[in-house]
Amino acid sequence: MLKKIAIVVLVLAILFLVVGYLLPREYSISRSNFIAASADKIYASVVDLKSWPEWTPWNAKMDPTIKYEYSGSGVGSISRWTSDNIGVGFLEVTSAEEGRGIVYELHFEGYPPADGVVQITQMKGGCEVLWKMSGEAVPPIGPYFILMMDSMMGKDFEQCLAGLKERSL
Question: What is the CATH number of domain 22-168?
Answer without folding.
Answer: 3.30.530.20
